[in-house]
Each structure stands twice: as C-alpha cells, then as structure tokens.
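Morning!

As promised:
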Amino acid sequence: MAEKKKLTALSELGEFGLIEHLTKNIKLKNASSLKGVGDDAAVIGEGDGVKLVTTDLLIEGIHFDMVYTPLRHLGYKAVVVNLSDIAAMNGKAEQVTFSVSLSSKYSLEAIEELYKGAYLACETYGVDLVGGDTTASPAGLFIAVTAIGTAEKDRVVYRNTARKNDLICVSGDLGSAYMGLLILEREKKAYKANPEMQPRLSGHEYLLERQLKPEARIDILKALAGAKVLPTAMIDISDGLASDVMHIGKQSRLGCTLYEDKLPINQDTMKLCQDFDISSVTAALNGGEDYELLFTVAQEDYEKIKDIMGISIIGHMSDFSEGMHLVTKLGQQIALQAQGWDALKK
Amino acid sequence: MAEKKKLTALSELGEFGLIEHLTKNIKLKNASSLKGVGDDAAVIGEGDGVKLVTTDLLIEGIHFDMVYTPLRHLGYKAVVVNLSDIAAMNGKAEQVTFSVSLSSKYSLEAIEELYKGAYLACETYGVDLVGGDTTASPAGLFIAVTAIGTAEKDRVVYRNTARKNDLICVSGDLGSAYMGLLILEREKKAYKANPEMQPRLSGHEYLLERQLKPEARIDILKALAGAKVLPTAMIDISDGLASDVMHIGKQSRLGCTLYEDKLPINQDTMKLCQDFDISSVTAALNGGEDYELLFTVAQEDYEKIKDIMGISIIGHMSDFSEGMHLVTKLGQQIALQAQGWDALKK
C-alpha cells in the first residue's frame, strides 16, 4: 500500500517563501511584460512610457479588526497602500480598481462609508476609480485593490539596482503605525474586559492616524525630482524597515549597514515604547505598515538630499559578503532579521 | 431623542444595484482614463494603443464549493474569466496578477495545484503572471485576479454602442455551465446522504467541463477579424444571456428581440433539462457562467458571419420603446428579466 504523503503546512514557508516557491519558474513571454513578480509593482509597456500595476488584499481578521477600524479610514487605506507601491517604483498612480467581497452583516450605509474613504483617497491623489468587482462573502470583508500608474521607462526605480556605497535613506518616521496598532489592541482588550469603559485614545492622534489612515509619500518623490535626484533603488516600508531593506540588499546582491542613532523615531512613539516597555528600535525595524519610502542614492547626491525635509540618511550599502546589520548606539553590530509582519504565520 | 435610522440591507439592491449606487457619481479626472466602471474592462491609455483592465473575485462558498471543485480547475477558471472580459472588449490579454487569501486548512500542495491551473491558463492564452498578493484568511479561499490587455483604440468594442436593427450573435452554446453545476450539486447532496456512494458523473463530461474549466473565446475574435467584421457592441456571458443582453440594450438605449428557436443549446443540456424537469430555455437565458461572447453586428455584415462556425444569430436590436423580449417557438412574446446569478442575494 502506498504511504500517505505528508502535506506541507503553509506556515513552514511564510509569505515570502510561499511567493518565491510559487513564482520562481515564471518565464515572461510577452514583450510588454518588462518586470513581473518581485518588486513593488509590475512594469508593462512597449515604448518610453510604461504602466505600473500592483495589487494588495486587505482581509478582515488579518489586516484589520472591525472592532476599531472606521470603514471610511479602511477604504482610504486600501487605496493608499497600493498608491504607495506605485510611488515606490517612482511612478504616478492614475487608476485603481476597487473590489469588495462582504457578508450580509454589512449594511448599505456601512459600505457607503468604505467607498467614501476610497473616493477620498482617489481625490486626494488624483486617481480615478475605473472598475472592480462587488460580491457576497460567507463571512467577513475582503478588499482587493489594483492600482495602475505611469512612469518614464528610464526613471522607474527597482529594488535590485542599489550599488555599493550608496546611501540608504528613509522618509518620515518609523514604528509609529505599529504603536498605533498596539494602542488599539490595548483598548480593545480593555473594552472586552469592561464594555462600560471609555477608550483611552486621546493624546495618541498621531500614532492612530499612522495606523488607520496612512499616506503615500508622493511629496517625497516630488522633492527628489526637484533636487534632481533619481534613487538607485526603492521600496515602500510595509513589512518593516529590516525586512524591506533586506529586500533591497538581497535583490541587489549587496550588504548594508544601518545606524541606530540615525533611525527617525517620533517622540510619541518613543514615549509609548517606554510605557509598553518595548524597544523603540524594534518598533522601527519590525513594526511595519509605515508606508514610508526606503531608497538608496549615490554618495555624490549627498549634498542634494541632505537638507530635504522629511528624509533621513540611515546607513549605506556594502559588499554582499559584509552582510546586513544595524550598528547600535553602543557600537555593537546586530544582524538584521526579517521579523516583519508575516500574515501566514499568524 | 433621535430615532435610530434604519439601515439598508445589501440584498435590497442586489449586485448591479449596489455597483450602480456606489459608482454613479464618479467623474474621471485623468486623460488616460478613457472608460471607467460599466463595461467588461476599463480602458486606459494615451495614444492609439490602449490598455484594458478588469478584475474578478472568486470566493469560496459563493462562487465555488471545495467539495467538488478541483483546485487546478479553479486556478484555471479564475484566470480565464478575466481573460474573457478582455476578449469581450475585443482586446488581447497579456498580463494577469493573481492574488490569493487562504486559511491554514490549505496545504502547500493544495496551493500548488491552484497555481498550476493559473499557470496552465496563462500558457494556453499566452499571458504572463506578473504579480499578486498572497496572504492568510481567517476562513476559506479568496481569489482576486486582474487581467491587463491591449487593443487598438478604435477597435475596442463597448457595451453601449449597439445600433438599431443590428443582429444579435452569440458564440458556442448556452446553459451548459449551469447544468454542469446542477449535476455537481446533485452529487454533493447524494454524497452527504451516503458517503459510500460513487458520484454519477460519467457521460456528463462536457457539462462538467463547461462549469469547472471554461474557456475564453479568443478563437471567435480571430474568426471575426478574419471575416473583417467588427462587432458594434460586445459583452461576455457571465450572468446569463438575459441579464447580459439587457446590459447591451440598456447601455445602448435600445430594445431587443431574441428568438427561442435560434438559441444554441447543446444536446447534453437539452437531455439533462428533461431529467431535471427544467426548461432548457430558462437554463440558456439565466444559467450564467457560459463565458461565451454576446455581440451585435450590422445587418450588412450578415453574409460575412453567417457561415462562421460556432456563431449563432439569435435576434436583433430594436427601438428602446419596443422593450426587450424573447419570442417563443409558439410565437409568444415574453419580457426578458435579469434573473441572472446575483451573489449578493444568496
């Protein structure tokens, strides 16, 4: 009798391992498929102008919790996280499709709120909602958004094109979205223990907004273009700085060094990390969902970028053999680990 | 005290009503957004060549039942239903993104089967898989596919451009996919009653394949191009002939007449309708999921299309005031009703 073959649990691979496993044998056939799986967006086109295409899923119970997620913010965020992917290719988003699968527990008024948020994001970023699918779900709310952008072919910025000695830069601050999530989870727990209790959210507006209503950093692309700087590589921070800088490192076949004292961490994040007794460096490295731009620039562009508001230089690329690590304030070298948010292991 | 406002159940609107309600106020802003919501695909671009973009969701428990759906077929179908939308715009699909949200009950081997099906569809239709998202779900399997195609701008065929007296044509046969579904549902019921029972599927291969592994009718587009016929309007049949011909009628501001004796119905479908004691005309009109092309052509193209294999002329467009109906074999006029498959009412 044949022995029953043992099946492999998805958790053994994790999200990145699974995607790598499932897509490693793809060979692109169409001349218009310039870049497929493996970057923030696919690159499609024939001439000097190309189209960028990216898709993200947002799943109730995995990516958001209806207990504390306003539907309007959720619709906004679902669009913005895709616009952020287009931005991370140095492109301009112009269209989105917005697809929703929802159970009968949602009323029309609830879905209107969701769409209001999506439309607000479209208006804010000058994007058109051009399609989508709307259908029932047996349970919960599933959102699938595809964004389409344009770029000049020779100005698309990939993940795998960083060069040795390039400066590593990041926009905004890191770890705040994660701290916003911790506040919401804390208040959910308190509410469950005592439904009469008022949530303690006041004073945390910045962190909550970072979690619930992130923005795509189009302003940073404009500032870079204004300074005549084209990044050598770029990615948006969705899984956490550590995980995302490692994507640039691995795909560019380089090592990298980050400096703890250069990491941009907001005062509110600092303070809350003390309250929660967690390291703000951990929040910055592994928190995820910041939707900031992480990019590399040539050393000779230092003068052009050093005074741009909202950009921090946090390290540099090195030889692959040197590995990827963080230098702490005490001068210790700690190897980076992609402990980023991995929904498949939840 | 303020009266609590009554919330509106989604079932009151249905899928088409909900989409119409949520998208009616969209105003396209970007010059590249040539056509938004309301056709089989959005049309995007600046020059003579345009891009077509379409998205479809396939949800476990709504669109498919894991009891009788082989995962390889499901992956194939998820891609094909999107390619069919691109075909219905007279475009050539070149890329897809394939996104999956799945619960931990699925093993790696199961997901490999799903992707094998998706890749087989990509290979069969010369399409590249260029991206997607892979994430956990709290329960069940959710698939979101976006297809991107190309077309010459002046050869894109919309739904709203049929003209009075145009001939209404359909490819292949109608109602077979629905009958395939009825067989599968019958055997599921029998299996639940008696798990020892062998499913009675033999002899129904054609109908089962129509349900489980549909194809996009690229061959019909080639035949039409070969005969130098450009349809005046086109849609693919996903919701059922009645529902889909009414889309063309409403959007073109025309009426239409279909003839029962012209409807292409396969012998297997005919026979099974007798066994199930349902009308084969009902199956053809309202079954859905045939993924055949429904299109209109000018009267003067009659000679060019009448001998093309796999195309049936089933009626003609008329004045809006004449309404939309079917003439039965007995000469009765029956008003068409969009009783098509409406997942939100399930």
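Chain B has two domains: 34-155, 167-345.

Hope this helps with the figure draft.
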